[in-house]
Each structure stands twice: as C-alpha cells, then as structure tokens.
Amino acid sequence: MTSDYIALIRSKPCSTSNRALLAALAGIGTRDAPATLFFQGDGCEMAHALAGGGLGPIDGDRFETCVCATSWARRYGAASPPAPLRAESLVFFFQRLALARRVDAFGLGGWCCCLAPDASAANRSTRLLLEVASAPADERQRRETLEVALGAAALELEAGVLFRGAGLDHLADAGARGWRQITDFGLLDILAQDGGGRIAPDFGVVAVDACRVGRLRAAAATILLL
Predict the structure, then answer these.
(1) Which CATH superfamily includes the segment(s) 5-115?
(2) Cβ-count burial of 96 within 10 angstroms (0-12 exposed, 13-18 middle, 19+ buried)?
(3) pTM score
(4) pLDDT by position in tens, the chain (length 226)
(5) Is there a smaller number of Cβ atoms within 10 Å at the N or the C end of the chain?
(6) Is cis: bond before 136, omega within 30 of 0?
C-alpha cells in the first residue's frame, strides 16, 4: 500500500535543518505503508549523511528513503546509492505527491507542511504552488530548482511557481534562461512578489502583491517551499 505521507528534502545537512527534519519524522507514524522521503538537489547530501549514520538511523520499516537519481549522480556518480537509499525520478516524486495526505517540504528557503483536503470534498483543489524564497548559491542549485518545475510541467500538473525575496535572483541575468522558456511556452504560471526593477520587462512573469500571494496559497492544495 502506498504511503499517505511524503517529504521533499532539498536542504543541505546542517544543525538547523537536521533538527527540523528529525523532529518532523519523529511524529510520523504509518500503519499501512512506510512514509516516503524524497531527497533532491542539495538534499542528496543529507541523504548521504543519513545513509552513513551521521544523523541517526533511518528505520526501513517506517520510511521509504529515495533520492533524485539526477541530483545523486551529479554528486556521487553513476553508482547506485547505498541502502537504505533508492534512486528514483522526479516523476516518481510527483506521483507519490498526488496520493499524499500530508506533505512536508524542507527547502533551501525553510520548511512548510500541507495537509491535503478530503479527496471527496466538493471543488477540491489539485493546484500545486512551488515557492522559491532563497537565492541560488551556484549554478547547480539554480538548475536543480528549475528541474522541479520542469517535472511538474512535463506531467502537465496544474501548477505555478512563486518567486519572492531572495528567490527573485533566479529570474535575473542569464541564469533565468530556463524560466524564460517556461513562460514562452506557457508551461507553468510564473509569478513574482515585489519584483520591482529586478525582472526584465519582456519576461512573461506575473507581478503579484501580498494580498494576491495570500489568495494563491489559500487556493493551492499543496505548497512546496523549494
């Protein structure tokens, strides 16, 4: 049976993110299926530490521990990750996400938790909101943030990407080329809060204020803080 809990972990191993992750996992109890942990981007470095016992044991009966195959290969080569880790694609992640009743996201910009509405509820939203609130430290971070959005676009999910605060740096200069292609082809809604003069006027990004952001969050079934 598929788990009704999934966590997306994109943060590097550090004292703050380690404590947040382990505290969240301590409260996860699954009776029918292991909870799914999906490590992508810099989160693969945390998965590597977990596999080595550096953050304490991961109970294989309670957790299905997966790493993004592409992110893992960038850091550790083509060899399969050590047990209990298993390499999977972003398609796998989004398929599991669609079935989850609780979603935790440990992103570069912080942590957020979503509880899915009842599947039988009238007018139930399926919309996904990706929030980018941290600046890319390097080109790899820039690329791996974009890859999450491209995964949602490839599956034709009803999704939008909100850039705010330091995350607006993703839309600046030559590094924004991938996001421009998303807007050029209308693959996803790309929104920016308080972008001001930081975004080129010919870039197809929708400017939003705090009130609009509040409505976007309220309308979303799931929010992933990247």
Answers:
(1) DsrEFH-like (3.40.1260.10)
(2) buried
(3) 0.91
(4) 566 899 999 998 876 777 777 777 777 755 567 789 999 999 999 898 888 765 555 666 788 899 999 999 999 998 899 888 999 999 999 999 999 989 999 999 888 988 876 554 545 567 999 999 999 999 999 999 999 999 999 999 999 999 999 999 999 877 789 999 999 999 999 999 986 667 766 788 899 999 999 999 999 999 999 9
(5) N
(6) no
